[in-house]
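Predict the 3D structure for this chain.
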Amino acid sequence: MMLSLTSSGVASTLRHMDASSRRMQDVSMRLASGSRVSRARFDASGLQISERMKVRAGGFELAARNIQDGLSLAKVAEDGMTAVIDQLTRIQELALQSMTGTISNQDRLALDAEVQERLGEITRLMDAVEFNGIGLLQGDSSIDLQVGPSDDDQFELTLLGVDFVVDALAGRHARNQNQATILHGVSSTMVGRLIQMRSQQASQTRRLESMLDVARSSRVPLEAAASRIADADL
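Done. Predicted structure below.
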């Protein structure tokens, strides 16, 4: 039996073969990449939606890192303020001891010497406590943290300085009962103010921890949704 091939038949066969080849290439590409919509022609709207979800999920991941950095900074600032409070508490004790009439002037000089050491340490802490080059106790300031994928997802982290403590205690002594009484009153006021400031910082830390939970929990469902749209069903 003779097999007759016409030009139109050959062309039709070639078209079918080419279409089959393209389909096989598409399947191979999807299997190799693991993606159902690796090309826009596969599912243009699905690709757009999945890519937008992936970008937003990535934004939440980066936001979580930013928040963690903010938490680290806030922790360093809080620890630094606690160290200043410890120094002030000791100055209170020394002043109170110097106020009593049962010790000698020589004893008061020894107490005052320690007071000056403690004041010097407060000044050192004010200059030394920093995070990545940012001074945390040198004066009231703030930094903006990006806590989400959108432009307006920002949190202003307030930094509370202790420079006022250094100014208030500059030139204070405990060499006599009168000086010690004044020093005790000023240092007591400063301790109370710092404790209140530390409480404010702790409140900011709690807010950041809550934001971190939101950023982490928001990323997972977005990634899962993008995967359901874009990933190939093997």
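The chain has a mean pLDDT of 82.
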